[in-house]
Amino acid sequence: MDDMQLLIDLHKDGMRQGPGGAAETRLAVTLSGLRGQRHLRIADIGCGTGAATLVLAQELDAHITAVDFLPEFLTELERAAANAGVADRITTLAQSMDALSFKDGELDAIWSEGAIYNMGFEAGITAWNPFLKPGGILAVSELTWLTRDRPADLQAHCDNEYSHVDTASAKMATLENQGFSPVGYFVLPAYCWRDNYYRPMQQRFSGFLAAHGHSDAAKAIVAAEEVEIDLYERNRMFVSYGYYVAQKRGD
Ligand code: SAH
To answer: Which among 152, 165, 205, 251 has most CB atoms closer than 10 A?
Structure first.
């Protein structure tokens, strides 16, 4: 089994594939001003197994297209949507976020939690902007510096793995330059990382290693996750996910 398949195997049983929380998705919904609007069309891009998709389906009068390039995650999402009684409000779409088939002006809102970095914040916003109606909402969470200065090892790791990490003011400037007005911003608290993402993943480690016969490749994946968790624990005052809610201008 290759590394990608191993990563899918470790993460597909998770409620989420990155830091976040239902209360935080609901807060972004509140900031978006979409509550009370009817028949919304929303895309959740890089949806994973659907942590945010399910909240959107429950909170809004909306049809949500849940997009991810991994069909294994979409299968889990479909199962969870059926269990939650919202399957009729969700369509899954196995597609890459840099080649989406939405029509121009088709969407009232684009959601994307912990995924836009795969394209890069600016590239993602530029590519997805046309799909939104004027006045449409963009809600994205993105790794963000919380301070002006930070430890050298953290800077080096992030330069390597997430080269677009920046301060909230820089991200907001990007949003403004790409035709959006920021309408809300908040930082994901530590429990979104620890209780909602890392601890459940750590609880899956032993079953994952056993399922793969404690192979070197499986052990390397667990070790890499542990390095990331340790890095977060030592540096959580310097970095977190920022949640950006912005409105496309021109309505
Ligand atoms: N939004 C989910 C998942 C975040 S993890 C959550 O918060 O739990 C990032 C997700 O982006 C993964 O599900 C991964 O499969 C997906 N992804 C990565 N690159 C992608 C691409 N090029 N196109 C579509 N999805 C992608």
So the answer is: 165
